[in-house]
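D-ribitol-5-phosphate cytidylyltransferase
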Amino acid sequence: MGTKRDNIVRPINPASFHAVETGSREHIPGCLSIDFSVAVVLPAGGSGERTGLSTPKQFCTFLNRPLISYTIQAFERIAWIENIVVVVAKNSIDLMVKVVQQFGHKKVKVVLGGSTRHRSIFNGLKAFEEREEDSALKKPKVVIIHDAVRPFVEEDFLLKIAIAAKQQGASGAIRPLVSTVIATTSEGYLDHSLERAKYRASEMPQGFLYDTIYQAYVQCSEADFEFGTECLHLVLQYCGTNARLIEGPHTLWKVTYKQDLFAAESIIKETLAQTACVVTGLCEESTRLAGALQKTLGTQDMHVEIVPTKLRSSSTFISTNWNFIHVTVNSACLADLEELVKTFEETAHSVLYSVVLILVHLDVSEQPSASETMAALGGIRNLAAEAKRRNILLYGILLNHVKDAEQWEEAVENLSQIIASLIKERNPVLTGQLLWA
Ligand SMILES: Nc1ccn([C@@H]2O[C@H](COP(=O)(O)OP(=O)(O)OP(=O)(O)O)[C@@H](O)[C@H]2O)c(=O)n1
Ligand SMILES: O=C(CO)[C@H](O)[C@H](O)COP(=O)(O)O
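Predicted structure tokens:
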């Protein structure tokens, strides 16, 4: 039976992760399309020994979501990708099924992995061989293979890989080497070194005509399955197909060590912090403060739009933002915040990414009373606790109006720095706190 979540439109993704690299906020047009079928295999059956963690890296969580879900979403948002086969180890099957349900992934089939990466990939490919009536999967023309631990792959690059695979039989992402490759003697001395400019690192994604890569796996040896690391090599050796190589962005790197998990989290946080929305009332003080925040946050590389309170439930501005600043003047209006929280819940806006909601309470009275304000806004704690269960991070900031222009400018600057920090850090521990700007 369909749940409420099945019927709602999923929020769009935050700005492309490329934007972090290039500084550009350009969106890739949503109408990219191709006229052949494409499916994806995500090998996720490894144990992540090199991280030194007990949890396999694909199930390590940041911002309340496991790494594997970010990678799945990178493919699932693309209209021309039909199915995603996720290959996991036996003891992770239940966890994977739970992840699929919790984050509402719709195109995923979970398949049992093997003892090496190549065995896992072959198991993923074999899932398309099941008789059609027994399976929801249709054999695709092109299959894209991508490590589950490379979460930042973009549509424009996948399109290049898919088209090149269709034309050439195989294609793969490459990057310039960052270190020189050397051969060592068995005694640990330098044997020889390779000319760095001549070589490239082979990365993922890789694309293949499905029949070609399947045949390569059917023919390959036990040694290939046990020790091989390169699918492109298999199609060359067993099918005579020379892959087309395409240089990709550095964000395709593979999460391998513990520090890579921190890097991935930072990239997601930075991307989420690119835009914010100030919800403001109609009074002069409120609109003036909203305008000032738009300017000061703009200098910190945040694109801020201002939306009047009466439009706050409009889905158009909600679906493109993960950060909201609600400005109130004098009257403390937790009811408005409650309504926003409800809207986020109804639109499932915080299922994939945490939403930051900041109440900025401006006191313009002659003699502001801290105790009265505290009493009026005291309920923010309970509301924040309730919101946190829905992945909404609610904070409050108090600001007293000052007449002196210079002091006022300083206070607004201070306020915008606190706001920017709350948005960038997305710290769940500080939710429900009232801060003083
Ligand atoms: N038996 C295996 C081994 C690896 N993989 C997957 O292949 C990808 C790339 O492999 P790697 O980075 O080496 O992952 P691990 O094998 O998990 O890491 P480590 O080598 O540090 O143990 C990962 O998504 C990993 O889950 C897999 O599906 N099945
Ligand atoms: O980059 C690759 C593409 O050819 C590797 O084969 C792939 O990512 C496997 O990683 P590892 O060798 O660490 O298991």
